[in-house]
Write a structure and sequence with these properties.
The chain has helices at 12-18, 23-41, 59-76, 113-131, 165-171, 188-199, 239-252, 274-288, 290-295, 330-343, and strands at 47-52, 80-84, 136-138, 154-157, 178-181, 203-206, 209-212, 219-223, 226-227, 233-234, 259-262, 296-302, 306-309, 321-322. It has 345 residues and is α/β, with parallel strands linked by helices.
Length: 345
């Protein structure tokens, strides 16, 4: 056979029963959900900064990083909501390489999905309870979302997933802000079609169940740049791109028009230091145009304790440095957050 069935994994209900969310933790999450919903809906004029490592590789360093964010959050709370990226699944273009903590709770050891499921749930719960900040993760595998549905306040759908029917349908049943990235081709229509699908009710097969969703009114767009047929990056964070997206939203009549700008990936050409310049340009455009200010609700930044990246393993492992894509270091990130706050109207 083409498949080897290694072991039957616990269903989400079983994992949740082993590692339950307390009433206190549920209340914290509900409060953070509302904060983000208020930004996406326009009820709050605060600005979102979704920030953190490309992939969460271990709990100690991730929580160390979030502890630093927490201190800055207290200083900018009147203008910004910092949302830690705790991305536990890593999409791979060719399928090769480290696929995130879900697959390998220890990046230097063999895949272990059972302990990966437990590790990521415990890490999300620990971060939420300790720092009381809204947590973001990417929904790379729709069937796995339910393992974390009760701890996440923000969900991202990646560029390679946004055209997938199951991602769109499952997004329609998520009750927190869900960002749909533009596909790698850069097509705005594909991205907006995904938002349309996510905002509507659907009936479909999910984890062996016949389910019906209510629709997610807080589904929105994320601009992350594109790649042309020659493999060259094409940014889409510029003024003209944002006005075009605003006009397309206006014609569609979608609920809660909103956009987050991903400052890395194809917007930066994966030159991680460019995120600083890109974010500053986005903030300038918000100041220049009332339409852009209404549309752009936040930015997404890849950042960790130590800038750059490193290979997995070896004697020279650097604590708090990305083992996937390169990230901004902490000092640059901290300064950039202050600048974002200064440029908020």
């Amino acid at each position: 056979m083409s498949f080897t069935f290694n072991q039957k994994l616990p269903v989400p209900k079983e994992i949740k029963a082993q590692y339950p969310v307390s009433e206190k933790l549920a209340a914290i999450k509900a409060g953070k959900d509302k904060e983000l919903i208020d930004v996406i809906s326009g009820a709050s004029d605060k600005f979102l900064v979704i920030i953190g490592p490309c992939s969460a590789d271990n709990e100690e360093a991730v929580c160390d990083y979030i502890s630093r964010l927490k201190k800055v959050q207290e200083e900018v709370a009147d203008k910004l909501i910092l949302v830690p990226r705790i991305y536990t699944n890593k999409p791979r273009t060719t399928g090769e390489g480290y696929k995130g903590m879900l697959h390998q709770p220890d990046p230097e050891k063999a895949p272990d999905l059972l302990n990966g499921l437990i590790a990521i749930r415990k890490m999300h719960m620990h971060a939420l309870e300790t720092f009381e900040m809204p947590i973001a993760d990417e929904m790379l595998y729709p069937e796995n979302y339910w393992y974390l549905a009760d701890v996440l306040s923000y969900v991202a759908i990646g560029a390679r997933s946004v055209e997938n029917q199951q991602h769109r349908l499952v997004s329609s049943g998520i009750h927190v802000p869900t960002g749909m990235k533009n596909p790698t081709s850069g097509d705005f229509s594909v991205m907006l079609n995904s938002v349309i699908a996510a905002q509507h009710s659907h009936n479909f097969l999910f984890r062996g169940w016949d389910v019906t969703t209510t629709g997610n009114p807080y589904a929105h767009t994320i601009l992350r740049g594109a790649v042309n047929k020659y493999g060259q990056s094409k940014p889409n964070y510029h003024y003209e791109d944002l006005i075009r997206l605003f006009d397309m939203y206006s014609q569609l009549g979608l609920k809660n028009p909103a956009c987050i700008i991903d400052a890395n990936h194809s917007n930066s050409g994966k030159k991680f230091k460019e995120q600083i310049r890109i974010v500053k340009e986005v903030m300038h455009n918000r100041k220049h145009s009332a339409d852009i200010r209404t549309l752009v609700k936040g930015v997404m930044i890849e950042s960790y304790i130590v800038e750059g990246n490193q290979k997995i393993g070896g004697a020279n492992h650097v604590y708090g440095q990305s083992i996937t894509d390169p990230c901004l270091g902490w000092e640059d990130s901290r300064q950039l957050i202050y600048e974002i706050a200064d440029r908020c109207l």
